[in-house]
Amino acid sequence: MVPILLPALEVYAEKHGSPESRLFRDLARVTRAKTACPQMQVGHLEGGFLRLMVKIARAKRVLEIGTFTGYSALAMAEGLPTGGRLITCDLDPVATRIARATWGKSPHGKKIELALGPALGTIRKLKGPFDLVFIDADKENYLRYWNLCVPKVRRGGVLLADNVLWSGRVLRPKDRTTRAIAAFNRFVASDRRVEAVMLTIRDGVTLAFKR
Ligand SMILES: C[S@@+](CC[C@H](N)C(=O)[O-])C[C@H]1O[C@@H](n2cnc3c(N)ncnc32)[C@H](O)[C@@H]1O
Q: Whole-prediction pTM value?
């Protein structure tokens, strides 16, 4: 992932919010040591943003698409009240083993339920309403995830989609994945079911409010 912000500013921004806890620092370290693509993890800045979004939306029921080693899931679980639930989908049993091990060390881990398998099938089976959905799995399916999730989000609820700037490649889409993200972005911008804004956090995050 090519940073869209000057790396020094990214570090500055990370340092000027609440600090990253030891558990998340350890998870980032284990992810770097044990996975091939550690940059998939949302990291401290976006993790903090997601945690606050869950709090600000007063979400009690959250759906995540794309667990990986569990950083974003745990960050959002920390934002949930007692009794809140987060369902997170992934098909990778190896990365999610790291996620489960980390969640087991946190009192918020018990709010998280992992649905292992292709996310399209999982989402189709889930009943709404959700207060907040975070989309962060295979980019070719973003539009399908979006169209399955929008009806399952309550009015006034929130949808978030990660990597919408795709290291800036959306400006000149040349490959299949970039074209899929660019098509997703165009669709969201004209989707009357939501009010949306694209934020330049990390690799780009779309934030949408369900009307
Ligand atoms: C960018 S990573 C998610 C990062 C995670 N949110 C974090 O902060 O650590 C994307 C994840 O989507 C998963 N994935 C890819 N295709 C999928 C599919 N069809 N169904 C479910 N998960 C999928 C991958 O296994 C990968 O772990």
A: 0.98
